[in-house]
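Thread title: Can someone regenerate the structure for this chain?

I was given the following input by a collaborator and told the matching structure tokens would be attached. They weren't. Posting the sequence so someone can regenerate them.
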Amino acid sequence: MRILLVEDEQRLADALEYILKKNKFAVDVAFDGITGQDMAESGIYDLIILDRMLPGKEGVTILRELRAKGIKSAVIFLTARDTIANKVEGLDAGADDYLIKPFSTEELLARIRALGRRSQSSLLGDKIIIGALTLDPLRCEAAYGNETVKLTIKEAQLLELLMRNHGQVLTKEQILDRIWGFDNEVDVNCVEIYIYYLRRKLDPQKCKVRIDTIRGIGYCLNGG
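Best answer:
Regenerated them for you:
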């Protein structure tokens, strides 16, 4: 499961990131609302842990805008506001769960596991189709015609990002941030390498889509 943590309290964010990674989750962290929303809109996250009070943009506003844009990632709100009215507002905005600060890490992990089980069946059918190309992100498989292509996790995430942004140019920096995380030591050359891997695995003549290089900028999935 890939998780986005949007939390402005540095010590809490660091602690949660450590605990989540220790429990084998892939985690990216944003410390303000604007950055968090930008990362969430990539659509690559299974779960977003979203603080309600954030600098830049408030959590409920972020969630409403994500849902309006069709982002289906499960969302757990973290908040110090424990009134019924606040809970109702968060849930009505599209949250799947609500956790009041302070909370135990065991409870957070249990709620994450519960949401993972709840969404598993829908994720299995959540395939992306463009042209003759079908991507199953959960199984890391692409298919076209009678061919099925196994992808690595990073290849599947990259192809999903390109397909969800079909016809839009993504810079190398945007791809790097959204696939490898904003806090990483990976060079942009890594993006070029994984684009090369995808091109080797996907026959544009058969799948009817191609990954175009936009010189000096980045890449764009076209066709279909």
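Confidence is low (pLDDT under 50) at residues 121-125.
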